[in-house]
Structure formats: C-alpha cells, structure tokens
Design goal:
This protein is 38% helix and 16% strand. The protein is built from 10 helices and 11 strands.
Length: 300
C-alpha cells in the first residue's frame, strides 16, 4: 500500500475561496479586516514570512500593515506599542513577528495582545476558551492539522489520535480540538516510555516534536492518517552516505518533517509531505483567524 499524499495547498485553496466570499459580505456591511504585524529589528526569515503574509492577505482582501520597530526597542516600549494597537479601532488583528531581540520576553508580550485581536490564538484567555470548546481563535498550526484531517471526509469520532509533542502551539491545542470532535487523543512527549507502542495504535498520527524523521514507517499503524507538522533543516547525503555539497562548497541542506516520509508513506493511508502539507494550511488559518477577530469585534 502507498499512501495518498495530501496536497496542503489544495486544502488551503478551498478555505481561501470561502474566506474571499465572507470578506466580500463583511465589506458590504462596512467592515474591513485589518491585520497589523509588529516586527522588532531585522531578521531574514521573518522578512520572508512578512512578505508572504502580506501577499496572502492582499489576495483575499485583508488590509495588511507592518510596524517595524528598531532592534534596540525595549520590552516596555514594545508593550506600550501593543497596548496602543489594542485600543486602535482600525486594527482588527495583531500578530507579533518572531524572533524578538534578546531582553524581550516574547511570551509576556504576546499574552498582552487583546484576546479579540489575538489572531495567533496564544492569549491565555483564548487558550482557556479552547478548553470550553470555543475554537474561534485557536493556534494556527494546531487548527491546520485538524482542518486537514477534517478535509478527508472521514469519521473522526472515536478515532485513536496520537500526538507526538506537547507544545502550547500544536500538541496541547490539537489534543483539545480532537477531544471536541469526540476523538480519543493521546499526547506523547520526552517522558513517554514506549513511543512506538503509542504511535502504532493511532488511527490518526500527528507528529509535532521538531526532531527530523524520528517517526519511522514501522512506528505507523497500517492505514493510519499521518499529519507531519515538523519542519527541520538537515544535510543532504548521496547514496554512499557522503554529504552533498553546494556550489559554494558547503553542505547542501533540505527540509524534512518529523516523519520519515519514504517509509511511512508505504504504510499510511494518507500522509502530508514536508514542505507542502501543513504549512499552506497554517497560513490560511491565520487569515481565517483575522476574519474571525473582526467578527468578534463587531459582535457577529
């Protein structure tokens, strides 16, 4: 058996189409979503992410603006800036770009974003709402993983779901989202005694631990759905086990997930690739959260 490879861009595209229609309806009522990004200092990877955010927003009709603060900005000044945006009625969503410079407590600042403008779903209030089954503003990557499973049209109720990784942005919220769908989630972590035993029982396996290709094919239940959230940069090797060098004489790098794709796809029924799987859906979840934030502000 060879798994069906899930096209994340296709899943994202369908959600994007629905968002365009919803945004058009909101604009007819005089409501326009406006996502404000805040970046402190310069970072190459963050810059690319910002450019992608802007492109995605503009494509579906969301206003996107970026506040660039100098690298020497102090934590107190950043907090004041966030508070200002919280009180700005023209801003309906706020995203704080990572990484932040040394000396700024990212978690502290992020939790000060107003709950109804928290498009990343990281405010403690929104995390608490998740426990109560209110999933309007939940962490984007967790929502993406669940949305991909839902897109397959399978019955989720009663399924055994094993989640490898217990982070606040994926593992923990995914478990709550799956509970809300009446699945039976198990969260594995560094203290799990027999990880293969846990992964082999999973009808749905979600890997989000940040360790390159740690989930091998023999750890996957035959016919399982495998959602690979991991993004890892590793060296590329040739058939003899030697590093492949680029034109500059440095080791060539490639992006892989937390699942060993080549072996897992021979066992699973469905599997997400890396890249091209969870990533595109995560971006569109940010857009959906931005629209939901506007609706919350307008009491819709």
């Amino acid at each position: 058996m060879s798994a069906i490879i899930i096209d994340g861009e296709s899943v994202a595209g369908k959600i994007r189409t629905r968002l365009i229609e919803e945004i058009d309806t909101l604009k007819k009522r005089g409501l326009c979503p406006h996502l404000k990004a805040v970046q402190v200092g310069e970072n190459a990877s963050s810059k690319l992410y910002v450019q992608n955010q802007q492109k995605q927003c503009e494509t579906i009709g969301i206003t996107y603006t970026l506040d660039e603060l100098p690298a020497n900005t102090k934590e107190e000044a950043l907090i004041e800036h966030i508070k200002k945006l919280n009180n700005d009625s023209q801003v309906t969503g706020i995203i704080l770009q990572m990484p932040l410079p040394d000396g700024i407590n990212a978690k502290k600042v992020q939790t000060l974003i107003a709950p109804h403008k928290d498009v990343e779903g990281m405010n403690p209030i929104n995390m608490g709402e998740l426990v109560y089954g209110n999933t309007k503003l939940s962490p984007c990557t967790a929502m993406a993983a669940v949305e991909i499973v839902k897109s397959l049209g399978i019955e989720i109720r009663g399924k055994e779901v094993t989640i490898v990784g217990r982070s606040a942005i994926v593992g923990k919220p995914v478990s709550l989202l799956m509970l809300d769908l009446s699945a039976t989630p198990t969260v594995c972590h560094s203290g799990t005694r027999d990880l293969p035993a846990q992964t082999r029982k999973a009808d749905i396996l979600i890997a989000a631990v940040g360790k390159a290709e740690m989930i091998k094919g023999d750890m996957v239940k035959p016919g399982a759905i495998v959602i690979d959230v991991g993004i890892n940069r590793v060296k590329e090797f040739d058939t003899n086990g030697n590093p492949v060098m680029n034109k500059n004489g440095k080791p060539k790098m490639k992006t892989v997930g937390d699942v060993e794709f080549a072996t897992a796809k021979e066992v699973a029924s469905y599997i997400t690739p890396v890249p091209g799987g969870v990533g595109p859906v995560t971006v569109v979840m940010l857009l959906r959260n931005t629209v939901e934030a506007l609706k919350m502000s307008a009491n819709l």
